[in-house]
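FIELD: query
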Amino acid sequence: MDSGFRKVRRLSLPVLLASLWLCPGALAAPAEGHLPKTRKHTSLRAAHLDPTFGEAGRTTLSLQGAEGGVIPVLMDDDSLIISTGRSLKRLAPDGKLDESFGQGGTLTPPVPSDGDFEIDGLAVDSQGRLIVAGTSQLPEEEAPSSVAIGNGTSVRPQAARVMRYLPNGTLDPSFGDAGVFETNLNLPAPHDEDGKQILTKPWVEVSGVAVDSRDRVLLSGGASAGIRFGCAHDWFFNTLTYAAFVARLTKAGTLDPSFAGDGVFGGLSTSENPLHAEGSANPGIGPGDEVVYASGRTHCPRGGGSAGLAQLSADGQLSPSFGTGGAVRRWSGDAAIEPDGTIITLGYVFPWYYTKEPARAQITHFKPNGQVDRTYGRGGHTVLTSPGGAGSQLSTMATDAGGRVLLGGTMISTKTFRDPTDHTKKRHRRSFVLVRLGAHGLLDQSFGPRGRIATRFGPLGVNASSLLLDSQGRAVMVGTYGPWNNRGLAVARYVIDR
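FIELD: result
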C-alpha cells in the first residue's frame, strides 16, 4: 500500500530523558468510553483525530497497578501491542482491546523458574512475528557476590531474555528453546581493580531490540564490567559498573558468530566503544544492516562516558569513518534512520528549567556518515519551543516519505479560577500535542490550528511517550494517565490528509 508514508528504523534513549519528564497528574480515570467530543475548527488542517479509532479517535485502558515503562509496537495489520513491564496488551485496529490475544487481551511472557522478567523492547520481523526482549531477574543465590554491592537492598543477577511469537500469539518453536532464548552473552565474570573476581557470572541488562533485513535480532544494553565505590557524592556503597554492548542473534535464536566474531560487540570494558558508555539504547538499523546505537543508562555517574551516537558495520565492527572516530558526541534523545541512511535526531536545548518554561526541542539532520547536513534548518538544526506552558515537551517523533518530521509530546496549559471560598487557584491540563515540520525544517502552520493538534482526554492528565506511523500513514500517539501506582494507557490515532 502506497500511503505516502514509510516506516523508519528507530532508536530511542528514554533513560537519559526520564529525569526530565514530569509525572502525570494524579487524576482519577472516568468510565472507559466516555471521552470528550472532537472540537471543530474552521481553519484548514492537515491532520485530525481518526473517528474510526476508539471513541472520537481516542481510547483509554486501565493498567491496574502495572509496573514498567510503556513500549508500543505496530503489527502488520495495524493492531497495537503495548508492553507495560511484565505483560503485553493488544489493541485491535479499531482501538478496542483484542480479547482473543492471550487471556482476555493480555499476554504474560514466561519467566525464569523462581525469577522475574521485565520487558525492555519490542520489534516485529518481516514475517509478522513479535520479538519480545528484556532482562531476567534471576534468584540471588544463582550468582552470589564475593563483595557487598548496593545500598543494602537485595541485588539479583540478570540475564538477557528474548522470545519470538507467531502472529497467532503463540511462542515460535523454531526460535531458541521452544521460542525462548536466555543468555549472559558468554561474557566473563567481572573483576575489581585488583583483578579479583567479584561475581560468579556476568550480569546483563537489556535496553532495546531491533530486527535487521534478514530477520536477525539486535540487542542493546550493558553488562557488568567491574565495581566502584562512591559513584556519586552521597553514595557510600559499592556499585557495579557496566560496559555497553550490542549483540546479534541468528534467525534461529542463537548468538550470531558472523557479528563481531562471537555475536557480541562490547560488554567487557567501556574503552571498547568510542563513547566510553556503560549502556547502549535501542539499536537502529541502516540500509546496509549497519547498526547505529546511542549511549544509554549510566550506573555510575562518575564513570565518565559521552552522550552520543556510534555506528557498527553489518559484521559488528566499529565504523571509524562515522562522525569523529566512530561516534557523534554531545547528543542525546530520539533518532530515526531513513531508508537512505540519513539520521534525524530529536534532542533538547539546555538549560531547560522545566518547572518554569516549555522545553525547546532541537531536530538535527545527519548524513549517513554522521556529519551534520547543514542544508537543513539553520546549519543542520531546527529549534522549536514546545507548544504550551511550563513543563510542556515534544518528546517523540516519526518521519514521513517526504522527509517531514512529525513531533509528538505533552502540552500543559494552566487555567486560573476562584474556588468557592474566593481563593485564586490554578488548574493544569495535560494534552497530547502533535506538530509537523516541513522537509526543510519549518513549522507547518497548516497542520492544525496554530500549527498543532492538541488532544485532551477529558479530566485525565495524560503524558505522551511514543509516536508511531501505521501502514496507512496514520499517526498513533501512545502515553499514560494517572499517578504511578494507578496508571492507565491513553492512545490517540490521527489521519494525515496531506
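FIELD: remark
Residues 14-17 form the longest helix (4 residues).
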